[in-house]
Each structure stands twice: as structure tokens, then as C-alpha cells.
Amino acid sequence: MEENKMKAVVVDKVTLNIGVGKAGQELENAKTLLERLSGAKAVPTAAKVRNPVFHIKKGDVIGTKATLRGPSAIAFVKKALKVKDFTLASRSFDKEGNFSFGVPEYIEFPGAKYDPQIGMLGFEVCVTLRRRGFRVARRRRAQAKLGGKHRLSKENGIEFAKETFSIKVQ
Questions:
Q1: What is the pLDDT of residue 1?
Q2: Are the C-beta atoms of residues 96 and 150 closer than 8 Å to each other?
Q3: Which residues in the chain show pLDDT less than 50?
Q4: Are β-strands 168-169 and 87-88 bridged in parallel, bridged antiparallel, or unpaired?
Q5: How far out from the chain centre does Cα 68 lie?
Q6: Which helix (DSSP H) or strand (DSSP E) does residue 135 occupy?
Q7: CATH code of 122's domain
Q8: What is the model's pLDDT at position 2?
């Protein structure tokens, strides 16, 4: 029996994120690191809420992120999973099947060399999954709701990650 190709799960995007907490040289170092590791342009991220404990105002630039799509995104995730020994906890997956994990120190990433100017930084890898046809819910013209059977679940995400990236889920 032939599988419906619209039901196939695909990687929508991979987002790399470093939260520094404040603007300045540390933020520039984080931006440089993400651009080196991913080959994509890193963009600044701003605080969404005010946090007086950390002296952060809404709109302050406190981090940086880079987005990868297509085959380069899948290749990056495979390299990043080597740091985790291809093992993730089930709590790394959200209810829509997306998953994320952290790399504690960038020098653990395959092919990365220590740069004394950057120092020691870690980063997050967030993998967003989707099925073909998700565009109907996001497009501007003739927007429609996505059917319940077409939505991804946590179990779909875990199954896809096991098949595609050969990971073990604990």
C-alpha cells in the first residue's frame, strides 16, 4: 500500500539560538560564532517582556539566532546530535512534535575549534517539523484551518527523529 505523500513529516527549519542577556561584545561574539558554525546570517533577538531583576527592558537586544532550511539544516542537526551521543529525552519534544536540545560548549561541536576571542559559549538547536500543506494555515489569502488528522503529535515527532536522525529517546 502506498503512503500518502502529504502525510510525510519534513523538517521545516532549524533555529540556532544563543541568549546572552545584554548587548555588547558578548553579543557580537555570539553572532560571529553562529555565523561560523551554520554558514547562515545571524540576526539579533529582542526581549519580549521586561525583567527588572536582570535589568532588561522590553525591546532590549539580548541574543542572536540563525535559521537553516533544507538539506543544510538536516546535516547540521546530524552533526549537533553527535554532541548528545544521538540520545534525547522525551521531554525535548513538544506536543506538535518539534524538538530542541542544547550544546553546552561549542568546542564539542564536530569541526569547531576554540577561539580565545569568543570564549566559551553554548547554543540551542530547535528543530521545527511540519507536514506538506501547513501553508494553508499561514498564508494571507484564502487562509484555512488545518485538520486535526493533519496536525503533528509528539509521537509523530519522536518516530520521525528516530527514523531520520537514528536517535534514541529516553
A1: 47
A2: no
A3: 1
A4: parallel
A5: 9
A6: helix 135-138
A7: 3.30.1440.10
A8: 58
